[in-house]
Amino acid sequence: HYPLRRQRQMCIRDRYGEENFIGLMANVLRTATVYGALLYSQVAFGVYSVVGKLGIQYCDPIIFSLFRESCAGPLLVIMALVVEGVLPRLRDIPYFIILGLTGVWGNQLFFILGLKLAGSVIASLMQPAIPVFTTFIALIVRIEAPTVLKIIGVILATAGAVVMVGITGISLHNQTTIGILFLIANTLSMSIYLILQKPILKRYPPITVTGLAYIVGSCLMGLTSLIYIHQPEKWIVDRRSLLPLGFAIIFPTVLTYACLTYANKYTDSSIVAASNTIQVSYVPLQSLIAQ
Q: What pTM value is reported for the model?
């Protein structure tokens, strides 16, 4: 079979030329890398919904987020300097502040509070709201063109979440309702973050953008902690939370946000957001674990 495969490759090269063939292979590899990064990110986020719930049983959720972001930010910046070696321009600093405010501080603070109040199952079920918000905003600000597939995708994402709510038999009460409101704020923050990333990714590589946003987000989370956490004992992380915290720093934060930013650089924000619907597929398993 090898000579036949080699002959096909040579035919392609003869037809399109050596440069076009290399370009085609590069595009195929990049597309595969983008979708692989999105798949990994959503698996990591889904696992974090369970692991994070375990971590905040023994640690204040705001302090948990503070340590998560304070450790992830420097790691991402070091990665950016080693791999990409790009420093921000002074005029772009306000843009990175907005990214840190939405994608890091708002996104993660609202998620961890929603996770604490509503549970891991509802937290995952709410994630399909991200492509809905992202596609809607992208169409409003005209950074993406409306297509039938995008509209159908938004409808299916919404319908799927509604169906899964029925399957898992979630009951709503005051605490859960407040948690859902936090999760709505979480998904809206993430959507705005993905949309705002697009222009800055034309001037900066992905890890640099992620790292600078995380430095801003960790500073804002530190300020939030100082305002709302007054008991000294709450600033101590219980040893039972250390393993979930370590997992949260590396897998659904440093690696995942670098992957999401990379994907957002090379494809539409609505496609990046649509990958969040993957989390709904293993909600029944999360429901079983949560019981």
A: 0.84
